[in-house]
């Protein structure tokens, strides 16, 4: 009997500065290549903003909390990795820093992280949800068909998102983050294909994955096009309000789609995943072996991949036999004619 071609692992993560964060259930790890070349690994627990509440298990509701948790944990891990690359000399505290430390004391860093996250979310909502509406509204004098205007608004929204991804991918520092992003995907693909987690096997794996946050955000754009097409009001203020208030609904739907994509492999899932995999061509780059080593450290800190391979793939054979059973490399599988990672949960 042949081996499974793919098996969901449940692990996911994100790239940070010169490192990787990996999460498995409530445990997470952050592995960072320090300036001296050593790899620092921090392990922690993160139960989410609602802990073990049953709300986090309800379809379409769980996606909202999962997205918020991803932002919180991701920001925390980014700050942790950035601390290794701060200037050796202490920088002088600004007036804002002094005020925060005086008012919030030991909670100042957490408050600052929360404010940073809120500002980032507000900025994203304004750019990707509200701005496309105002741009398309200028076309009302030329386009009288409301259905066509709704489609135009959706196209503008998707184009703004793709242009944003393209522009930041040109930045040198972001390119290294994208290389670590590729290393993270490669590790998960390697495991989910039933291969030993070695540098050699990871390097041969695909840098694209269906459960990637990039794909999730693209699904958010597509779902918003559909919802805004059918939900319409005449008042301008209400139009803007709806685009903001429906964001949790959109995120919940997009989450369920990305969740399905991570667990199924039929032709429909492949088709709807194709645009996200294509966009990952911009947000993931081929890593070097040093980056893969960091990613492996992050995985092994929170996930027993050997036990996983024994349980799901009958892990006893040699690597060569596994490749024969699988029948193809990940690169052939993950980049088909249409064009798989960090779990959003």
Write structural notes for this entry.
- This protein has 345 residues and is an alpha+beta fold.
- The protein is 61% helix and 7% strand.
- It has helices spanning 62-82, 95-104, 108-137, 146-169, 172-192, 199-204, 213-230, 236-245, 247-263, 267-283, 289-302, 305-313, 319-326, 330-334, and strands spanning 12-16, 19-24, 27-33, 39-45.
- Strands 1-2-3-4 form a four-stranded antiparallel beta sheet.
- Strand 3 (27-33) and strand 4 (39-45) form a beta hairpin.
- Helix 5 (172-192) crosses helix 11 and helix 7 crosses helix 10.
- It is globular, with a radius of gyration of 21 Å.
Fold topology:
Blueprint: E1 12-16, E2 19-24, E3 27-33, E4 39-45, H1 62-82, H2 95-104, H3 108-137, H4 146-169, H5 172-192, H6 199-204, H7 213-230, H8 236-245, H9 247-263, H10 267-283, H11 289-302, H12 305-313, H13 319-326, H14 330-334
Antiparallel strand pairs: 1-2, 2-3, 3-4
Summarize the structure.
This protein is an alpha+beta fold and 345 residues long.
Task: Supply the helix-strand structural class.
Answer: alpha+beta
Strand content: 5-15%
**Cα-atom radius of gyration:** 21 Å
Across the major sheet, the strand order is 1-2-3-4
> What count of helical segments does DSSP give?
14
Average pLDDT for all residues: 84
Distance between the termini: 32 Å
Q: Report the strand count.
A: 4
């Amino acid at each position: 009997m042949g081996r499974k071609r793919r098996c969901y692992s449940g692990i996911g993560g994100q790239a940070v500065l010169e490192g990787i964060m990996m999460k498995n259930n409530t445990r997470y790890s952050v592995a960072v290549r320090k300036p001296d070349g050593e790899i620092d690994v921090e392990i922690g627990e993160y139960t989410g903003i609602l802990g073990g509440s049953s709300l986090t298990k309800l379809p379409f509701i769980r996606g909202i909390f999962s997205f918020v948790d991803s932002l919180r944990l991701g920001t925390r891990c980014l700050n942790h990795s950035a601390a290794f690359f701060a200037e050796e000399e202490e920088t002088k505290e600004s007036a804002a820093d002094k005020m925060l430390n005086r008012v919030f004391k030991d909670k100042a860093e957490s408050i600052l992280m929360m404010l940073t996250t809120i500002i980032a979310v507000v900025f994203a909502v304004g750019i990707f949800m509200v701005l496309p509406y105002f741009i398309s509204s200028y076309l009302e004098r030329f386009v009288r068909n409301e259905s066509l205007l709704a489609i135009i608004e959706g196209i503008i929204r998707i184009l703004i998102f793709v242009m944003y991804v393209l522009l930041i991918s040109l930045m040198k520092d972001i390119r290294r983050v994208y290389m670590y992003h590729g290393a993270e995907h490669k590790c998960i693909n390697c495991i989910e294909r039933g291969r030993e987690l070695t540098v050699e096997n990871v390097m041969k794996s695909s840098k694209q994955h269906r459960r990637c946050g990039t794909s999730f955000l693209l699904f958010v754009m597509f779902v918003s096009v559909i919802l805004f097409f059918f939900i319409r009001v005449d008042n301008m203020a209400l139009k803007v309000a709806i685009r903001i208030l429906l964001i949790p609904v959109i995120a919940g739907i997009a989450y369920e789609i990305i969740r399905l994509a991570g667990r199924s492999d039929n032709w429909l899932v492949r088709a709807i995943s194709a645009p996200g995999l294509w966009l990952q061509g911009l947000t993931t780059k081929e890593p070097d072996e040093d980056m893969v080593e960091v990613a492996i450290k992050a995985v092994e800190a929170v996930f027993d991949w050997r036990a996983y391979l024994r349980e799901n793939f009958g892990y006893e054979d040699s690597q060569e036999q596994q490749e024969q059973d699988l029948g193809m490399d990940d690169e052939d599988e993950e980049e088909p004619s249409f064009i798989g990672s960090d779990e959003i949960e």
